[in-house]
Amino acid sequence: MASVEIYTTPTCPYCHAAKRLLNEKSVSFREVDVSRDPDLRDAMTERAGGRRTVPQIFIDGQGIGGADDLFELDKSGKLDTLLAA
């Protein structure tokens, strides 16, 4: 099973939707709350190629983008392949 990390904030509906999809797929993930730590937010932004929005999702260290990107991967059938790696 792939390693999944998701950078979030508690009030972000897109974060909740992305986590819900991952939970529905029984995927374990490491969640990093960036809401109160500017250093974590900066690290996320650097890692995500300048994107500051949440969620930012990484599968096996590769940034896949946000919730819309996650759902698009799922819709296209590519998410399960990435998660199985």
Short summary:
With 85 residues, the chain is of the alpha+beta class. 46% of the residues lie in helices and 20% in strands.
How does this model look, in words?
- The chain is of the alpha+beta class and 85 residues long.
- The protein has one domain (4-84): Glutaredoxin (3-Layer(aba) Sandwich).
- 46% of the residues lie in helices and 20% in strands.
- It is built from 4 helices and 4 strands.
- A 4-stranded mixed sheet has the order 2-1-3-4.
- Helix 1 packs parallel to helix 3 (67-76).
- InterPro entries: GLR_AS (IPR011767), Glutaredoxin (IPR002109), Glutaredoxin_subgr (IPR014025), GRX_bact (IPR011900), Thioredoxin-like_sf (IPR036249).
- Keywords: Cytoplasm, Disulfide bond, Electron transport, Redox-active center, Transport.
- Belongs to the glutaredoxin family.
Which SSEs are present, and which pair or pack?
Layout lengths: L3 E5 L4 H12 L5 E4 L4 H10 L8 E4 L2 E4 L1 H10 L1 H7 L1
Helix pairs in contact: 1-3
SSE ordering: EHEHEEHH
Please count the helical segments: 4
- The CATH topology turns out to be Glutaredoxin
β-strand percent reads 15-25%
Shape: globular
**What is the overall pLDDT average?**
97
Q: Count all strands and give the number.
A: 4
What is the top-level CATH class?
Answer: Alpha Beta
Roughly how much helix do the residues carry, as a percent range? 40-55%
Q: Which class do the helix and strand fractions yield? A: alpha+beta
Largest sheet: 4 strands, mixed
Radius of gyration: 12 Å
Distance between the termini: 6 Å
Show unreliable segments. Answer: none
Strand order of the largest sheet: 2-1-3-4
Q: Assign the CATH superfamily.
A: Glutaredoxin
